[in-house]
Amino acid sequence: MTLTSDRLPAREVLRLAAPALPVLAAEPLYLLVDTAVVGRLGAVPLAGLAVAAVLFAQVTSQLNFLSYGTTARAARLYGAGRRGDAVGEGVQATWLALAVGLVVIVVGQLVARPVATALGDGGAIADAAVSWLRVALFGAPLVLVTLAGNGWMRGVQDTARPLRYVLAGNGLSAVSCFVLVHGVGGWAGLGLVGSAIANVAGQTVGAGLFLGALVRAARAEGVPLRLRPAVLRMQLALGRDLIARSLAFQACFLSAAAVATRFGAASAAAHQIVLQLWFFQALVLDAVAIAAQSLVGAALGSPERGAERAKALARQVTRYGLVLGVGFGALFAALSGVLPPVFTPDPAVLAVVPVAWWFFAAMQPVAGVVFALDGVLLGAGDAAYLRTTTLAAAVLGFLPLIWASLAFGWGLAGIWAGLTLFMLFRLLAVGLRARSDRWVVTGAVRPAG
């Protein structure tokens, strides 16, 4: 069999990637709606929401192993023809989501006041943030159940239903947010707390749909719904590596924001504009990575030519990532004089934006390949390698240049040079790993270590 026979039709990659993109974009888009609604209450509630939303976002960013790790494990089992066991991964991930979510509620309620006070500098902003967090934290288990649901359903190559479930939950939140915040008719509404209630209501709907799908699939496959400690331990081992990797990202971006603010408001604003565009294009590249996770995991779990198919898929999705990256780079280069004024009319900010912009545009092809190979290695369950190399790239690449830019007054040039070096280190790491074939471990379950 030739390489061509191992090649997957592009429409199969698109079938998985296309629904994944709106799922990834749903939460950021909802936050824009939430911000616009709360913004009409005034500066203090909006500032309180900004502080509280950053804190609550750590739930999804630090615990996304419930999605990515579950996809990797479920995809292998699905590729091996063991769909019932793949659904069983979803059952155990959901139990884990509920348990961790309850811990988040308890700990969050205890630390909400001191953390919000520290970030919000005390006073009215901290009070507003705490009032939102006290309610929103009850949605933590629901958010984590949704992550687990996305994980096992992607593993069995079903990305259409998660799209419907997430849009249903976020749609309810968006519709109810305005009414709960500002009221209707003679009712004055609940103010900022109404936003948190709308969040929890939408999360309840989304999590309920995922739970219903899981119970139906478990019954159809004869999968018990009880806890299985051995599976939970394996999921936690994979989660440990993914959490460490996520913390490396957080340390880098928080350091960059802290340093940017020390160069003045114009530099901080310019950094925020370019960084948000970076996060936006990352959604598209991440959709390809999610397709790679599911397909590579299934290939490695398959008893027939699993290694050859996985390697062919790795080459294929890497080409797709490169094409997307080159396209993004050309697009953002062409829009360099058009897009920044959409975000701000401030001439001081616009004067600084090009310093970061050209780093951002030039990095797109690198990012396209890195995200694609990240998806391949995550699908292979090679999380330990990704953890180690991401931490190394942060410690050796990003963070030294970030803090050197503060010490030597390099401004945004130093910050974005650090991000560029971080991405180049990651490109080298994932590229060497992909060429080595050490990630190509076949079987329904990847051995530990």
What does it look like?
The chain starts with a helix and ends in a 13-residue tail after the last helix. It folds into two domains: about 1-225, no CATH class; about 230-449, no CATH class. The longest helix is centred in the first third of the chain and has 38 residues, at about 85-120. The protein is about 85% helix and about 0% strand. α16 (about 385-410) packs antiparallel against α17. The protein has helices at about 5, 10-40, 45-60, 65-80, 85-120, 125-135, 140-155, 160-180, 190-220, 230-260, 265-300, 305-335, 340-345, 345-360, 365-380, 385-410, 410-435. The model has no long low-confidence stretch (mean pLDDT about 90). The chain has about 450 residues and is mainly alpha-helical. It has 17 helices and no strands. It is globular and about 60 Å long.
List the keywords.
449 residues; mainly alpha; 2 domains; globular
Helix fraction by DSSP (H/I, runs of at least 4): over 70%
Number of strands: 0
Q: What's the alpha carbon Rg, rounded to whole Å?
A: 22 Å
Structural class: mainly alpha
How many angstroms does the end-to-end distance come to?
A: 32 Å
Individual helix count: 17
Principal-axis shape: globular
Mean pLDDT: 88
| Main sheet record | none
Poorly predicted runs: none
Tell me the fraction of residues in β-strands, as a range: under 5%
